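PROTEIN ENTRY
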Amino acid sequence: MAPIPLRLALLPLLVAASGEASNETCAEHGSGRSCNAGIKEEGTDSWLGFLWSIMSNKKDAVNKYMDRFDDDKLTERTTTDEYYDVATDFYMYGWGTSFHFATRFLGETLAESIVRHEHWLASKLGLKAGHKVADLGMGVGGPLRTVAKFSQAHVTGVTINDYQVRRAKKFTKSRESVAAAKKMDYKQGDFTKLVPDVFPQESLDAVYYIESSCHIANRAEIFQESARALKKGGKLFSYEWVMTDRYDPKNKEHQEIKKGIEIGDGIEDLVGIRGPLDALEQSGFRILEHGDLVDLAEEWYGDNNVPWYYDMAQPWAFSSFRSFALSEFGQNTLGRFLWLASQMGLVPEEASKTEQMLKQASINLVKGGQMKIFTPMYYVLAEKI
C-alpha cells in the first residue's frame, strides 16, 4: 500500500478532477436516470488507480440512492443504476474486476476461487466455440472475459450502468489480445428488455447471471426475457442471492440483517429460495439442477472448507492487497482516510458516505453468512422448453 504522504500529495490533483466531474449533468440511461456521464474511467488499472477513482469520481448519487429506501416509490432499475454509480469504484478497489463470492478450500487463494467459480459455471452450461452467450448484469466484465477465454464462446455482457460498460471496454483493450477481444462484447441495457433492444429473438445458446438477478425481486421479469432471447433448448445458469429457509421473517435480528444487505447492495427485496425456482418454471424453463453451494462446499471440502465471507470477517490480513482491503482493518483504514480527506475538504463528503454504506453491507453479509440465513450462491441450471 502506498505511503500516506504520497496519497496526500496526490489529493490536490484528485480534487481538481472531482471538480471537473461535478459539472456534468445527469443523462438518461436505460430505464433509470443516472449521473454516470460525469464519472470517468481514466487512471491505471491497479488498486492505486481504483483508489484514485474512488476519490476523484463524484459520488453524489449516493444521496438520491439512500433516499429511495425512505419512501414507497422504490424503482429497481433506477436504484440499481445509481447504486453502481457510487459502488463500482469501491468494488474494483476491493475485489478487482469480478464482483462475486465463491466456494473455497484451504490452500486456494481468493483470486483462484473466483476463477474456478466462473469456470464451473461455463462447464455447467457446456459452453464451447461457436456458442453465443449473454452475461446479464456483467459488472465490469471480469467473469465475462474469463468465461470467453475458457470456453471460446462469444460472450456479450449487459449492464444497466454505462460507467461499467466503459470500464469493461477499457479493461479489454488494455488486458486482452486482439483475438480474445473479438469474443467479448459489452452493451448498456435493461435485462428485462433484451429483445429486440439488445438481442434478436431466439439468437442465444446460453445466458447466465452471476449474483445479478437479485436486483429485480420478481425474477419472472428477467427470466421471461431470457426465454425470448434463447433458442429452444438453450441453457440458463444463475448464482442467486436469496434468503435461505433458515431465515425467520418474524425475527427482528434477521429482519435487520436482510435490510442491511438490501440497502448496502442495491436490492429492493431479497426473496427466498422458491422465488427464482418458481419464476423459471413460470417462464418456460425446465430446471435441471439447483442447490446451495454453501451447503455443498461444506460437504465437498469438509474441514478444509473456507466460508465465502471469510475475508470480510477477518480482523486483519496482509497476505495480499485484496485480503487486506476486504478485512475489517482494511475497510476501516480506507474509511478513516476518506473521512479525514473529506473533513479537510480534499474529497467530496459523499465518498466517505458511500464507504460507510458499503461497510454496513459487509457487516450484514458476514452476519447473514454466519447464521446461514442468506446465501449468495444458490445455483440454478435450467433449459428452455
User: Anything to note?
Assistant: The two ends are 52 Å apart (CA to CA). Residues 312 and 327 are 5 Å apart (CA to CA). Strands lie at 27-29, 32-34, 132-136, 154-159, 184-188, 204-210, 230-243, 285-292, 374-384. The chain has 16 helices and nine strands.
